[in-house]
Amino acid sequence: MFLGDLHTHSLCSPDGAVPMAELARAGREAGLTCLCITDHCDLLDLTGTFTPHFDWAPVRAAYDQAREALPPGLELRLGVELGEAYESPETARDILARAPRLDFVIGSVHNFRAMMGKQDFYNADYSDLALCHAALEDYLDTLHALAALPDCYDTLAHILYPLRYMRQAGQDVSLAQRDYPQRLDRVLQQVAQAGKALEVNTWRGRTVAEWEPILRRFKALGGEYVTVGSDAHRAEDLGKGVAPAYELLRTCGYRYTAVYRERKPVMEAI
Ligand SMILES: [Zn+2]
Ligand SMILES: [Zn+2]
Question: For the whole model, what pTM was predicted?
Answer without folding.
Answer: 0.98
